[in-house]
């Protein structure tokens, strides 16, 4: 399993737009490229962090090399228009060594 951590700064007042676009885009990426889903976290001051899982690094690279990333142009526009220009970044990538996210689910 391969994991990626992303970071965005969202424009104040556009949080709901970003979240909706991110959700739709993530669902399309999973359907089209085999991503295993993601968790989105809202931090302070408009910063969002997402943790995404993939079956392997090659599947993630294939999705990132695609010109479109996914086929939902409206979703892409929703989240891209809601982020502060130049603030999207991939902050970490790597193989999962141990997965305990589902250890204590409510």
How would you briefly describe this protein structure?
The protein has 106 residues and is of the alpha+beta class. It has three helices and four strands; from the N terminus they run E-H-E-E-H-H-E.
How would you describe what is shown here?
With 106 residues, this protein is of the alpha+beta class. It has one domain: Alpha-Beta Plaits, CATH 3.30.70. The protein has three helices and four strands. It has a four-stranded antiparallel sheet with strand order 2-3-1-4. A hairpin with a 4-residue loop joins β2 (38-42) and β3. α1 runs antiparallel to α3.
SSE topology sketch:
Elements: E1 2-9, H1 15-33, E2 38-42, E3 47-54, H2 57-65, H3 73-81, E4 89-95
Antiparallel strand pairs: 1-3, 1-4, 2-3
Helix pairs in contact: 1-3
Label this structure with key terms.
single chain; 106 residues; alpha+beta; Alpha-Beta Plaits; globular
Which residue ranges are poorly predicted, with pLDDT under 50 across at least 5 consecutive positions?
Answer: none
Q: How many strands? A: 4
% residues in beta strands: 25-35%
Label the structural class.
alpha+beta
CATH topology (fold) name: Alpha-Beta Plaits
Treating each run of at least 4 consecutive H or I residues as one helix, how many helices? 3
């Amino acid at each position: 399993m391969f994991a990626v951590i992303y970071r965005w700064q969202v424009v104040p007042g556009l949080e709901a737009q970003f979240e909706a676009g991110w959700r739709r885009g993530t669902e399309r990426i999973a359907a089209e490229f085999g991503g295993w889903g993601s968790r989105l976290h809202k931090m302070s001051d408009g910063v969002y962090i997402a943790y995404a899982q993939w079956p392997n690094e090659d599947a993630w690279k294939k999705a990132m090399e695609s010109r479109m990333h996914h086929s939902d142009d409206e979703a892409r526009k929703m989240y891209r228009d809601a982020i502060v220009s130049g603030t999207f970044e991939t902050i970490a990538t790597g193989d999962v060594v141990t997965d305990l996210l589902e250890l204590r689910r409510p």
